[in-house]
Specification:
alpha+beta
């Protein structure tokens, strides 16, 4: 039986619009890397709609209905055990576009960690995140917010640094290139930076994760400090907007529409 405690997760956070074309480019890449076709794509409704590539997977994911501010499909790659869930938003708001991509250890071992990293890179290239991580799922999701009785949110802090961590160009500038000196990093073609802390996530010492966070500035990350103020140690989310969302946010702001009314 698969040990769920050793499952890997890739978490993607983006303020870039994810339109149909993005998915039409990305999904075939993922099928090639996982070596299994996407066999199910649904929005968690009872019908459990099966994939029909001829009708356009990308259009299905981005097919916003009237008065629906977001869609939340989940997809499965055959019997590989690899699957994903995502939130794709119509308009910019405090809630970002996000994706969680799950790879059981048995699948990661079969594919090889080089392929896992290639999946990470494909998601990074096509989904244009401001922040993306990959590690053992329980390691990522066990991080607690610094503020008690709250949900961890990037308006106050980022989750942390993990086996693989990507910071988009704006966060690279936020930290400053000199902070990455001495850390295992590579500059990416989009102007961001990717960190890789070890050969594999399962044997990675948690002390190395924490040391890297301290090198970059620990208060930007969860579990450090207390009584943090919104945007005090992170980039304000409106400054992370990309593409058409910049003009849409400016239009709504000019009209006096508050961010929490952006649905």
């Amino acid at each position: 039986m698969e040990d769920k405690s050793r499952e890997l997760i890739i978490k993607v956070k983006s303020y870039t619009p994810w339109n149909a074309e993005v998915w039409e480019i990305l999904l075939p890449q993922l099928e090639t890397l996982v070596q299994t076709p996407l066999t199910r794509l649904d929005e968690r409704d009872p019908a459990r709609r099966k994939v029909d590539g001829s009708k356009g997977q990308g259009a299905y994911i981005s097919g916003f209905r009237d008065r629906v501010s977001s869609v939340q499909p989940s997809g499965e790659f055959g019997k590989s055990g690899v699957w994903f869930m995502l939130k794709n938003r119509r308009w910019p708001s405090q809630i970002e576009n996000s994706m969680s991509f799950f790879i059981p250890q048995i699948a990661a071992t079969k594919l090889g960690l080089e392929t896992v990293e290639a999946i990470f890179d494909a998601l990074r290239r096509e989904l244009s995140p401001f922040y993306q991580v990959c590690d053992v799922e329980v390691t990522v999701n066990c991080r607690k917010p610094s503020l008690p009785y709250t949900v961890l949110h990037h308006s106050y802090e980022l989750s942390g640094v993990y086996w693989l961590t990507y910071f988009g160009p704006k966060y690279r500038a936020f930290f400053g290139d000199e902070r990455f000196d001495g850390l295992p990093h590579e500059w990416t073609e989009d102007g961001g930076v990717k960190l890789k802390l070890g050969e594999d996530p399962w044997s990675l010492d948690d002390a190395k994760r924490r040391a890297t966070e301290r090198a970059l500035g620990e208060l930007t990350f969860a579990s450090y400090g207390e009584n943090k103020k919104e945007f005090e140690h992170v980039i304000p989310w409106p400054e992370l907007l990309e593409g058409d969302w910049i003009a849409e946010y400016q239009r709504r702001e000019a009209a006096g529409i508050k961010p929490w009314e952006f649905g």
